[in-house]
């Protein structure tokens, strides 16, 4: 319980949306209520109808009203149910639209951090799933529970109107079904859910191990070990499921028994209350029969509520996202054309990291210069690029463009920097649209010219749909080199003065790499380029080389100078050229 | 509706009979319960005292309890069979996976394989649990009830009988209409539902392009479009539920009115009328519960079919042509491939006319542009791929084999790809993967030779630190060193297959790693696919691959002298300025 309230204490995702679209929500609940009301009323009315008819009224008009009502309720139930389904989905999907926008904005704020914290992008799918999850929370838990509770209150009040003690009895009996049983379910299920998640996780890990490491298993010849490893979680899962099912069966059984008791109680009550004369006795069948359609409505509450622990996780996770709006009143723009980038004696350490990544590092890059940044992986090359882009702030020192601190130029970033990294993202739309993202004002001809410049035109012309070809998810239909070229075309359209290249050729083979680098430096010849690279192919394209090691530059110079003076550079260069 | 494959499951036939019998008993309980509840109500209706109806009330209570108990009993009977079936399925899937090997995973995708084995079988479990009992209930209980109603009064029974096929007919018709409409919208619909994840993943790029803020509105608009489309589909899809609902409730209403008229003209008395009225919802109940789980059933059925399909795939035979003990590869051992070919999907051959003669502790480099077939060749040598049947011959030590997926062969080599897989286990377990019985000191020594000692010192638990997916990150260079440590630990495997082990590393890591790799190459037969030229200097024989063929082979000196594909490739690779 405490847990339940703690979840919503600082909630900005679930509660506020119950208030938004209030009318639609009220309509949904009303329709849901009417569905069950009609179901129950149909049996109530039918019971009355035949009891009354059995008294042989001399005029058929005496039962005319119940006949009409019977038909009305008979049609009303499916109609209300249908309408309820549509409105509830409509409501939930509206919320989902809001959620998505909100989630997008939250993620947008930390776009860069997300990419590096969660390399695979799994977390993004996870967050997207969370939203679907909250969607189910409404449809499977909130609506049925609220509707059942409303029914509960109405029934108790209605019966209490006839006789208060019987109303009280129903308050108790139905309370067992709509309150006690669901709470019990959530308690039992909550404990099991944690355990189940742990087992599922081991199973998942072992399975992934088995699948991804299958080649190793095969050549190791350890077939028996392989089978034995998989068997344990299989049995554990089975055991857990068994306990789960057992609980559900007996819970449902208990609920049904309570309904049986309610039925009996109604008969007993009727025998006191409705047997004063023949007319009132006609109501007995009505009351007793109206119980059965309610079973459906009340029984589903326990199941819905028991799913709460899994929803809770999603709610907590989205609430952990920082959704506060960013403050950008200190932003300015660069008035003169870019002339120099200065990194002045910066220190940097990741808040979570133990290592000082940079120590009094300085770097100056003038307009038009081309600089290559090398160093073993993990030394902080990408970190330096993030500092320069303003995604991270140095602990000490300054980073300026023409004397304006980079932190104040964030709104203008896309006009200043073009970035090509290891895996440029291609959106699942046409080639044309993807490239045009570099500059939304670009005409078709400009886009085509950019694609021509990066030497993709022949390839695209050969495609059946040409420039309107869909690139498929993640650009899957193109090779690594082609994807880089598409991204390069995008950067050409963007036309920013400074180009940041973060190991764009890392996943390419040497021939593709050589061709791509030739294109990059040809089309970007008039730009300022800061190029992080992992080996020395194409190093002669740049004017300056810097080696980053232990937070400082330990080699600097033109490639020719370094080859002549630094033995380490010479050795690596020769290795790269295959001369070792 | 009832999958014939279900009946092939062990114990299912017997169970079906038992469940059907229990369903008959359940039907009878339902009748007794309705009958005696009605007796009690009619008693009260006749203004009799409570004491006179206590007996029927008691019988009602017993029948009601029995009925609910039967539900539990049926589940309890069903569950062990389901549990055993799904447990067996999981085990069979895992064994099959082992037999199918990595080429199956490569073709199907890791994600799909994991999904089939995990969620797929979960769905199968739900499916089995739901479908069998519900279908049997649906085929038994309504008829038991109907017979009783008919015995009471045939007219209402006839009406209820007639409405049953009508409902199913309407559900089917509307179901098809919904399907057709859903199919038509599916493409756009799918794209919209994926759009969100696509946008989130592309966010860093959007930010770089200065579009990220503006895109929030786009996300909202697309989502709203998605909502409208979804609603359009739901409106139709829900029609079939509506039809079911409509006909069942309306039927009850009609029956009630019929009975009302019957009572007025005296052709029936209250008791049977009430019994019929009470029974009619129960007559439809099995159909309704079946329909409400229809989608879960459908998913389960598809998952079941997918698992069955995987289990039916053919597996490699003749894996013991070289015996089942590891080969002792020696200085005079030979491997020969003559005119061997391979194709991925029986279309164009990916490799053709392969002629390779390897012997003793040769070091054979395999070079070629990307896509030329280097990895395919290595996988063929490792036996992960099976050569086209009837093409050429493969001989190991003079013994002809149909493929290299030989138990003995596979236990004689190490395979080191670009990204060696690290198991979710401790570092020591990872190193000792091929030698699970190795002692800690031997593992430590191997790790030391692989140049891991300095790194291990920084780890909290040294060799016992957990690594692998989700645990401590391991860099690409370190992963290669762990794979090399495996080779240092197990000296009995004398053959090494490398597939571009350093392609993704930075030049300094590569240079350092090379110093570690070189000693491993001694006294081994080595196949080394690479596009990093400097490795060629360590090879004593080179195969140049282009478009799936070996276009040139010889010692590096021979090839350099001969101005052919090798020289041309070197020039291109050294390219740039
Ligand atoms: N978000 C982060 N939090 C903590 N440490 C990080 C983070 N991102 C990177 N690091 C660490 O900082 C170091 C430098 O990383 P990076 O700049 O990506 O290196 P490079 O690009 O040179 O390979 C690495 O040791 C890395 O583990
Ligand atoms: N699983 C596969 N299914 C179908 N074709 C494949 C598969 N793997 C590779 N190919 C194709 O086979 C050819 C050779 O690929 P590969 O052996 O990976 O080349 P390399 O390793 O030299 O880069 C390529 O044309 C590639 O597209
Ligand atoms: Mg980096
Ligand atoms: Mg390859």
UniProtKB/TrEMBL annotation, chain A:
Stored PANTHER family: ATP-BINDING CASSETTE SUB-FAMILY B MEMBER 10, MITOCHONDRIAL, ATP-DEPENDENT PERMEASE MDL1, MITOCHONDRIAL
The organism's place on the tree of life at top rank: Bacteria
Ranges annotated as spanning the membrane: 24-44, 56-75, 142-162, 168-188, 253-274
Keyword Zinc in record: no
Domain named ABC transporter: residues: 341-575
Pfam families given in the database record: ABC_membrane, ABC_tran
Entry-linked PROSITE patterns: ABC_TM1F (PS50929), ABC_TRANSPORTER_1 (PS00211), ABC_TRANSPORTER_2 (PS50893)
Protein topology in the membrane: Multi-pass membrane protein
Localization terms from the record: Cell membrane
Protein species of origin: Lactiplantibacillus daowaiensis
InterPro entries: AAA+_ATPase (IPR003593), ABC1_TM_dom (IPR011527), ABC1_TM_sf (IPR036640), ABC_CydC/D (IPR014223), ABC_transporter-like_ATP-bd (IPR003439), ABC_transporter-like_CS (IPR017871), P-loop_NTPase (IPR027417), Type_1_exporter (IPR039421)
ABC transmembrane type-1 domain ranges (all copies): 26-310
The protein's name: Thiol reductant ABC exporter subunit CydC
NCBIfam families registered for this protein in UniProt: CydC
TrEMBL record, chain B:
Keywords: ATP-binding, Membrane, Nucleotide-binding, Transmembrane, Transmembrane helix
Transmembrane segments: 17-47, 53-73, 127-151, 157-178, 236-261
Subcellular location: Cell membrane
Topology versus the membrane: Multi-pass membrane protein
InterPro entries: AAA+_ATPase, ABC1_TM_dom, ABC1_TM_sf, ABC_transporter-like_ATP-bd, ABC_transporter-like_CS, ABC_transptr_CydD, P-loop_NTPase, Type_1_exporter
Classification via CDD domains: ABC_6TM_AarD_CydD, ABCC_MRP_Like
PROSITE patterns, per database record: ABC_TM1F (PS50929), ABC_TRANSPORTER_1 (PS00211), ABC_TRANSPORTER_2 (PS50893)
PANTHER family: ATP-BINDING CASSETTE SUB-FAMILY B, GLUTATHIONE_L-CYSTEINE TRANSPORT SYSTEM ATP-BINDING_PERMEASE PROTEIN CYDC
Limits of the ABC transmembrane type-1 domain: 17-299
Name this polypeptide is given: Thiol reductant ABC exporter subunit CydD
The keyword Repeat is assigned to this record: no
Pfam family, one: ABC_membrane
Domain of life: Bacteria
Source organism per UniProt: Lactiplantibacillus daowaiensis
Domain ABC transporter: 335-572
Signal peptide: none
Record bears the keyword Electron transport: no
């Amino acid at each position: 319980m405490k847990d339940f309230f703690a979840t919503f204490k600082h909630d900005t995702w679930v509660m506020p949306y119950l208030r938004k679209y209030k009318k639609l929500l009220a309509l949904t609940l009303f329709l849901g209520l009417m569905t069950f009301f009609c179901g129950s009323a149909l049996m109530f009315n039918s019971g009355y109808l035949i009891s009354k008819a059995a008294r042989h009224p001399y005029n058929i008009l005496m039962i005319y009203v119940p006949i009409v009502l019977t038909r009305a309720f008979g049609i009303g139930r499916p109609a209300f149910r249908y309408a309820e389904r549509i409105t509830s989905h409509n409501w939930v999907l509206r919320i989902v639209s809001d959620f998505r926008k909100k989630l997008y904005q939250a993620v947008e704020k930390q776009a860069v951090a997300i990419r590096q914290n969660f390399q695979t992008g799994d977390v993004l799918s996870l967050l997207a799933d969370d939203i679907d999850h909250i969607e189910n929370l409404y449809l499977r838990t909130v609506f049925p529970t609220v509707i059942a509770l409303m029914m509960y209150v109405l029934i108790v009040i209605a019966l209490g109107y006839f006789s208060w003690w019987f109303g009280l009895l129903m308050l108790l009996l139905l309370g067992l079904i709509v309150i006690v049983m669901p709470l019990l379910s959530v308690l039992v299920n909550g404990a099991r859910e944690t355990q189940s998640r742990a087992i599922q996780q081991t199973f998942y890990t072992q399975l992934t191990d088995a699948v991804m490491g299958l080649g190793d298993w095969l050549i190791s010849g350890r077939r028996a070990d392989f089978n034995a490893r998989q068997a344990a979680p299989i049995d554990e899962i089975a055991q857990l499921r068994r306990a789960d099912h057992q609980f559900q069966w007996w819970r449902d059984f208990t609920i049904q028994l309570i309904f049986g008791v309610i039925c009996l109680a109604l008969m007993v009550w009727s025998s006191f209350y409705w047997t004063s004369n023949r007319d009132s006795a006609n109501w007995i069948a009505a009351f007793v029969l109206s119980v059965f359609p309610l079973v459906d409505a009340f029984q589903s509450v326990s199941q819905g509520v028991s799913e709460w622990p899994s929803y809770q996780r999603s709610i907590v996770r989205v609430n952990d996202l920082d959704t506060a709006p960013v403050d950008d009143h200190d932003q300015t723009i660069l008035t003169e054309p870019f002339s120099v980038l200065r990194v002045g004696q910066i220190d940097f350490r990741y808040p979570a990291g133990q290592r000082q990544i940079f120590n009094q590092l300085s770097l100056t890059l003038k307009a038009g210069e081309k600089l290559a940044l090398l160093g073993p992986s993990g030394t902080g090359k990408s970190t330096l690029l993030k500092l320069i882009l303003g995604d991270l702030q140095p602990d000490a020192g300054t980073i300026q463009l023409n004397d304006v601190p980079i932190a104040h130029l964030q709104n203008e970033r896309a006009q200043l920097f073009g970035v090509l990294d290891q895996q440029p993202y291609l959106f699942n739309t046409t080639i044309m649209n993807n490239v045009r993202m570099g500059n939304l004002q670009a005409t078709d001809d400009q886009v085509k010219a950019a694609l021509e410049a990066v030497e993709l035109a022949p390839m695209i012309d050969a495609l059946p749909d040409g420039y309107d070809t869909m690139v498929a998810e993640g650009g899957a239909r193109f090779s690594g080199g082609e994807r880089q070229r598409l991204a390069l075309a995008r950067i050409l359209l963007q036309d920013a003065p400074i180009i940041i290249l973060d190991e764009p050729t890392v996943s390419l083979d040497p021939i593709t790499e050589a061709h791509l680098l030739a294109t990059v430096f040809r089309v970007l010849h008039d730009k300022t380029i800061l190029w992080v690279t992992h080996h020395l192919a194409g190093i002669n394209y740049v004017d300056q080389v810097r080696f980053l090691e232990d937070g400082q530059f330990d080699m600097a110079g033109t490639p020719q100078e370094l080859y002549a003076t630094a033995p380490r550079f010479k050795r690596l260069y020769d290795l790269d050229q295959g001369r070792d | 509706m009832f999958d014939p494959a279900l009946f092939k499951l062990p114990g299912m036939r017997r169970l079906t009979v038992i469940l059907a019998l229990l369903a008959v008993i359940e039907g009878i309980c339902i009748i007794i319960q309705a009958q005696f509840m009605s007796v009690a109500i009619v008693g009260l209706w006749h203004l009799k005292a409570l004491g006179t109806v206590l007996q029927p009330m008691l019988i009602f209570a017993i029948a009601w309890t029995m009925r609910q108990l039967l539900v539990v009993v049926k589940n309890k009977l069903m569950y062990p069979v389901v549990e055993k079936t799904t447990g067996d399925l999981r085990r069979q899937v895992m064994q099959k996976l082992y037999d199918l090997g990595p080429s199956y995973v490569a073709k199907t995708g890791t994600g799909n394989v994991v999904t089939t084995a995990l969620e797929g079988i979960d769905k199968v479990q739900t499916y089995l649990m739901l479908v069998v009992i519900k279908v049997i209930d649906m085929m038994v209980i309504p008829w038991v009830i109907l017979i009783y109603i008919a015995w009471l009064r045939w007219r209402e029974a006839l009406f209820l009988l007639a409405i049953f096929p009508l409902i199913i007919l309407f559900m089917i018709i509307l179901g098809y209409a919904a399907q057709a409409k859903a199919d038509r919208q599916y493409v756009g619909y799918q794209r919209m539902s994926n759009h969100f994840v696509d946008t989130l993943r592309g966010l860093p790029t959007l930010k770089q392009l200065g579009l990220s803020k503006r895109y929030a509105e786009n996300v909202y608009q697309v989502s709203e479009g998605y909502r409208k489309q979804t609603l359009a589909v739901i409106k139709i899809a829900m029609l079939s539920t509506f039809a079911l609902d409509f006909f069942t409730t309306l039927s009850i209403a009609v029956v009630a009115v019929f009975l009302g008229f019957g009572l007025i003209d005296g052709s029936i008395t209250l008791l049977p009328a009430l019994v019929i009225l009470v029974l009619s919802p129960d007559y439809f109940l099995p159909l309704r519960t079946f329909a409400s789980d229809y989608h879960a059933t459908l998913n389960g059925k598809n998952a079941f079919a997918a698992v069955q399909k995987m289990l039916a795939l053919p597996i490699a035979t003749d894996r013991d042509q070289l015996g089942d003990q590891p080969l002792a590869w020696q200085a005079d051992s030979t491997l020969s491939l003559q005119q061997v070919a391979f194709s991925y999907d029986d279309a164009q051959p990916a490799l053709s006319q392969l002629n390779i003669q390897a012997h003793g502790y040769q070091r054979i480099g395999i070079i070629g542009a990307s896509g030329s077939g280097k990895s395919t060749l290595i996988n063929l040598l490792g036996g992960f791929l099976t050569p086209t049947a009837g093409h050429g011959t493969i001989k190991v030590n003079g013994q002809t084999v149909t493929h290299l997926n030989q138990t003995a062969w596979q236990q004689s080599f190490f395979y080191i790809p670009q990204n060696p897989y690290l198991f979710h286990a401790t570092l020591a377990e990872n190193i000792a993967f091929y030698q699970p019985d190795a002692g800690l000191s031997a593992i430590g020594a191997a790790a030391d030779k692989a140049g891991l000692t300095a790194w291990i010192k920084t780890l909290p638990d040294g060799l016992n630190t957990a690594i692998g997916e989700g645990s401590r990150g391991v860099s690409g260079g370190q992963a290669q060193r762990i794979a090399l440590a495996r080779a240092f630990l197990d000296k009995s495997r004398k053959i090494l297959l490398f597939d571009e082990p350093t392609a993704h590393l930075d030049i300094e890591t590569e240079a350092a790693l090379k110093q570690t790799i070189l000693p491993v190459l001694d006294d081994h037969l080595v196949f080394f696919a690479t596009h990093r030229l400097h490795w060629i200097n360590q090879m004593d024989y080179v195969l140049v691959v282009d478009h799936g063929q070996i276009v040139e082979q010889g010692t590096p000196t021979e090839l350099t002298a001969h101005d052919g594909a090798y020289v041309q490739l070197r020039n291109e690779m050294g390219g740039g300025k």
